[in-house]
Amino acid sequence: MTTKAYTKDYPRPQFVREHWTNLNGEWSFRFDDGNVGESQNWQETFEETHKITVPFTYETKASGIGEERFHPHVWYSKSVSIPKDAEGRRVILHFQAVDYIAKVWVNGSMVGRHQGGYAAFSFDITPYLVFGADNIITVKAEDGDSCTQPRGKQRWTKDNFECFYVQTTGIWQTVWLEYVEEQRLDSVKITPDIDRNAVRFDYKVHGAAGTAGELRLEAIVTLKGKPVKRVSLAADRPSQSIEVDLVHEANGPWKKSLWSPRHPNLYDVEFVLYRGDKVVDRVHSYFGMRKISIENGKVLLNNSPIYQRLILDQGYWTDSHLTPPSEEALIEDIDNMLAMGYNGVRKHMKIEDARFLYWCDVKGLLVWSEMAATFEFNDDAVDNFTKEWLEIVQQQYNHPSIITWVPFNESWGVSAILRDKKQQKFTEGIYYLTKSIDPYRPVITNDGWEHTVSDILTLHDYVQTGDEFLKRYAGNKEAIVSNETTCNHWKYAFAEGYGYKGQPIMITEFGGIAFQSDKGWGYGEQVTTDEAFLARFEGLTKAIKSVDYISGYCYTQLADVQQEINGLLTEAREPKFPLEKIRAINLG
Questions:
Q1: How far is the C-alpha of 396 from the C-alpha of 377, rounded, in Å?
Q2: Is a pLDDT exceeding 80 seen at residue 262?
Q3: How many whole angstroms separate alpha carbon 54 and alpha carbon 24?
Q4: CA torsion angle for 425, 427, 429, 432 (degrees, to 10)?
Q5: Pseudo-torsion of CA 514, 515, 516, 519, nearest 10°?
Q6: Burial (CB count within 10 angstroms: exposed 0-12, middle 13-18, buried 19+), residue 136
Q7: Would the pLDDT of 250 be above 50?
Q8: CATH number, span 24-173
Q9: pLDDT digits (tens, 9 = 90+) for 466-490
Q10: Residues near 438 by Cβ (< 8 Å), separated by ≥ 6?
Q11: Which terms does the UniProt entry file under GO BP (predicted)?
Q12: Which of 97, 119, 186, 223 shows its CA 20 to 30 Å from the CA of 349?
């Protein structure tokens, strides 16, 4: 089951238009270790030294290069034919992700610059094109080993170490063109309200200023092919909102139309922009009617408590690293999580491909969306982190599967947060800025320990046995939340000056069990048999579920990642034992 306008490999499934061109595939490529490309005008006369398969980075085998050594400046070039019949429309060049700074030229002319390795961005390249001819798109990507840029699990040293892996440099998600009119929808922010049976659409319309009623916007809402609502308004301002009542008795009881893991119902919505009687833009989207709230120390989904069984997923693949090898690979990961009895995923230190979130929406997998960390604290780090995080929250806002924002993890980038007032205030600032865009989802600062203001108290603990876990946590809630004792063996639950206010408590990292191997590591002693693995896994999981004040957990992790071999699957996504055995423990 998919949404009405689903198109395989379409890079932005929540905002679908008909006319687009995928630019993935072979590009010309060149390293620029001396950073001489701009001064030598490579954007005008580009001489390739390699071919590269976009969107895979040069560090990966899938790119066709497979060079893991760090190169801070890399260039791409591609000849793209722009059809003559596109003249009169605007041509938008989209990048789903480029790490870390992207500079873009078309036919030798600079069209734009973007900073941030995980957020999508785009440029209107129409003024630089020749229609009915080939046009040269050139991209320079600048990356660095700086720990003031959000880098997540990307190493900043020559070799991998601990839980940090080969870096990602340059284009690592889809590049594509879109053909649109001058007057068009730029975005629609979709906010469900299940208590009032309504949904709000916040529109941004490009070219609406000064049109004096010339433009009209229509929204057509359907559910499983059946009409629900059709609303229309004059699009006479660049930004405006409309609330739509979704009571529709013909489609059965209201609760059957809500989105949840068990019933991931999605409404299709078609946005049509008219100029007079002429259609100038048509965008297909979808939304889920669901509510996340917190009451009496519990997380509620649609006003009912939900026990979250999450799995941590870092989203790395053997031959393509951070880039999904295919849409089917994303679907396979989600299906494996569901098959093992998990109802959610904590996407760790990575902003995932929008198609992953689409399939979580469709299949009903809860998502914690987590920002890639910096690893230093100074003014540059604050600036870099804040700008990119706010871009990401806005870009991911409409996905019903996302139920929690996680901007900080384990004090990474804020290593002195226990006592440092500046670092504490930074996390507070990010919390409130996130809430200013999205007041409806919980925000966690800082996942694992040393929380400041946080809607959920999340704790990490890699204790090896269930008995050890119970000794530390059973009956010890008050000591842990009051900082009388550490929440594991070395970190306090709250930073100094902050305290417990009745938040839900979850164990959001545990386990990390690895089989005996000299090729990598896991947490605790490695095991030698399936029986030993499953016994330890079951003991820990049952212990957590038996503690009455804990309302969910997140197991580390889905799949092995390079030197970290503590996944339930190998890095090639081969199960280490039958998935139903994990499912039985999770659901038992």
A1: 26
A2: yes
A3: 5
A4: -130
A5: -70
A6: middle
A7: no
A8: 2.60.120.260
A9: 999 999 999 999 999 999 999 988 9
A10: 393, 397, 405
A11: carbohydrate metabolic process
A12: 186
The pLDDT of residue 163 is above 50 = yes
Q: Residue 59 is which amino acid? A: E
Q: Are 222 and 265 in contact (CB under 8 A)?
A: no
Q: Taking the chain, what is the end-to-end CA distance rounded to the nearest angstrom?
A: 29
For residue 461, give both structure tokens: 């603990």
Distance CA 14, CA 321 (A): 25
Q: Which of helix, strand or coil describes residue 20?
A: strand
Predicted TM-score (pTM) of the model is 0.96
Q: Nearest-5° angle of CA 469, CA 457, CA 363?
A: 90
What is the three-class DSSP state of 425?
helix
Instruction: For Cα atoms 567, 573, 576, give the angle at the middle one, nearest 5 degrees.
Output: 55
Between CA 310 and CA 3 the distance in angstroms is 25
Per-domain residue ranges of the chain: 24-173, 184-287, 303-587
Q: What is the pLDDT of residues 508-539, one digit of tens each?
A: 999 999 999 989 999 999 999 999 999 999 99
What's the whole-number average pLDDT of the chain?
96
Structure tokens at 93: 């060049």
Tens of pLDDT, residue by residue over 100-133, are 999 999 999 999 999 999 999 999 999 999 999 9
Tokens (6 digits) for 391: 């871009």
What does the pLDDT look like over 356-400, one tens digit per residue?
999 999 999 999 999 999 999 999 999 999 999 999 999 999 999
The CATH code belonging to domain 184-287 is 2.60.40.10
Q: Which CATH number fits domain 303-587: 1.20.120.1200, 3.30.70.2740, 3.20.20.80, 1.10.10.10?
A: 3.20.20.80
For residues 202 and 60, what is the distance between their CA atoms, to the nearest angstrom? 40
How far is the C-alpha of 388 from the C-alpha of 119, rounded, in Å? 7
Return the amino acid letter for 171. I
Nearest Cα neighbor of 163 from 447, 570, 564, 569 is 564
